[in-house]
């Protein structure tokens, strides 16, 4: 059975473009938070310099990251909400340090606060990665249009506080629901003046989808090509991978730091399904896996 054909795009960012589809691009995750599910506190120390964050950013770039995704607020259930000012106090020093050291680095800002998006883009970031898909801050769509930056629109079903109580979905419901919602988000972006060539979509694995509800999205990823936009997949170390390992192999659920092999397998599946960008914690392994998956696609 042949794999999905991956369309090519030129993704327009703030000051440059990225070719998508010729090979898989790797987005390295840099969380400057005390409470992210996988690496909370690793690269954040209140009141101190961003040295650890910079060191990790440079390591990811050297290992093959094409983009760095810089976030200052965790969206896991139970995480402490931040004001935009608090979020900016975490991420802006790191952003400035990264761009001083590597002026050509492409940095994405993982935020749903329009004020933070504006400050970060003005400081040199190229992309806004809004996990709410323009839903949690009414100013975000107009800010992204005004800033003329790359814009990642992710599907989120509900808010983190609502996720534990959302009604379950059948396997047949999931992909059509996410497609419909993304179509609505894209229409909102277009009406605000965000150009389609600046948009990448993300089905939002784990964001309001419980455990096995994520697999139909991976299994039917080619269906999202009908939206005519590049696809980003972020599944690195997520809980549905750990739960599958535990259930299938009759083990304890592995902690996030021990889900590398499961992440690699799912990343390869995503690429063969048509993903253009992988958002990952472990850059080197993702880049190596992508090289093999890309070789398979190119011989398809």
Structure explained in plain terms:
The chain has 300 residues and is of the alpha/beta class. The chain has one domain (9-298): Alpha-Beta Barrel (TIM Barrel). The protein is 38% helix and 14% strand. The protein contains nine helices and ten strands. The protein has helices at 51-63, 84-101, 114-122, 140-147, 171-192, 215-219, 239-249, 260-272, 283-298; strands at 9-12, 17-20, 25-31, 67-71, 107-110, 127-130, 150-154, 199-202, 232-233, 277-280. Strands 8-7-6-5-4-3-10-9 form an eight-stranded parallel β-sheet. It has a two-stranded antiparallel sheet with strand order 1-2. Strand 7, helix 5 (171-192) and strand 8 form a beta-alpha-beta unit. The N and C termini lie close together (10 Å).
Topology at a glance:
Layout (H helix, E strand, L loop, with lengths): L8 E4 L4 E4 L4 E7 L19 H13 L3 E5 L12 H18 L5 E4 L3 H9 L4 E4 L9 H8 L2 E5 L16 H22 L6 E4 L12 H5 L12 E2 L5 H11 L10 H13 L4 E4 L2 H16 L2
Parallel strand pairs: 3-4, 3-10, 4-5, 5-6, 6-7, 7-8, 9-10
Antiparallel strand pairs: 1-2
- Span from first to last CA? 10 Å
Q: Which structural category fits the helices and strands?
A: alpha/beta
Helix content: 25-40%
Biggest beta-sheet profile: 8 strands, parallel
- Envelope shape: globular
> What average pLDDT do the residues reach?
92
Our count of domains comes out at 1
Strand content: 5-15%
What is the H level of CATH, i.e. the homologous superfamily? Dihydropteroate synthase-like
Sequence of strands across the biggest β-sheet: 8-7-6-5-4-3-10-9
CATH architecture: Alpha-Beta Barrel
Low-pLDDT sequence parts? 35-41
State the order of secondary-structure elements, H for helix, E for strand.
EEEHEHEHEHEHEHEHHEH
Q: Which topology does CATH recognise?
A: TIM Barrel
Individual helix count:
9
Number of strands: 10
Integer-rounded radius of gyration? 18 Å
CATH class: Alpha Beta
């Amino acid at each position: 059975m042949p794999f999905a054909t991956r369309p090519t795009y030129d993704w327009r960012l703030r000051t440059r473009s990225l070719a998508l589809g010729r090979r898989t691009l790797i987005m390295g995750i840099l969380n400057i938070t005390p409470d992210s599910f996988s690496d909370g506190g690793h690269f954040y120390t209140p009141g101190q310099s961003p040295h650890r964050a910079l060191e990790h950013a440079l390591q990811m770039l050297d290992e093959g990251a094409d983009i760095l995704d810089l976030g200052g607020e965790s969206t896991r259930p139970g995480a402490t909400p931040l004001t935009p000012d608090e979020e900016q106090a975490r991420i802006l020093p790191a952003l400035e340090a990264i761009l001083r050291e590597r002026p050509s680095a492409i940095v994405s800002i993982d935020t749903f606060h329009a004020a933070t998006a504006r400050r970060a883009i003005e400081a040199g970031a190229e992309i806004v990665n809004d996990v709410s898909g323009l839903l949690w801050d009414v100013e975000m769509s107009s800010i992204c249009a005004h800033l003329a930056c790359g814009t990642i629109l992710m599907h989120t079903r509900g808010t983190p506080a609502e996720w534990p109580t959302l009604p379950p979905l059948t396997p047949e419901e999931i992909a059509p629901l996410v497609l419909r919602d993304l179509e609505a988000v894209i229409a909102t972006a277009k009406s605000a003046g965000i150009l389609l060539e600046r948009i990448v979509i993300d089905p939002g694995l784990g964001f309001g989808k419980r455990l096995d509800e994520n697999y139909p999205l991976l299994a039917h990823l080619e269906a999202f090509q009908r939206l005519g936009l590049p696809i980003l997949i972020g599944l690195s170390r997520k809980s549905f991978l750990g739960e599958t390992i535990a259930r299938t192999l009759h083990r304890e659920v592995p902690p996030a730091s021990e889900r590398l092999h499961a992440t690699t397998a799912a990343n390869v599946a995503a690429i063969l399904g048509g993903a253009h960008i992988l958002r990952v914690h472990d850059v080197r392994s993702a880049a190596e896996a992508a090289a093999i998956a890309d070789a398979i696609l190119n011989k398809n």
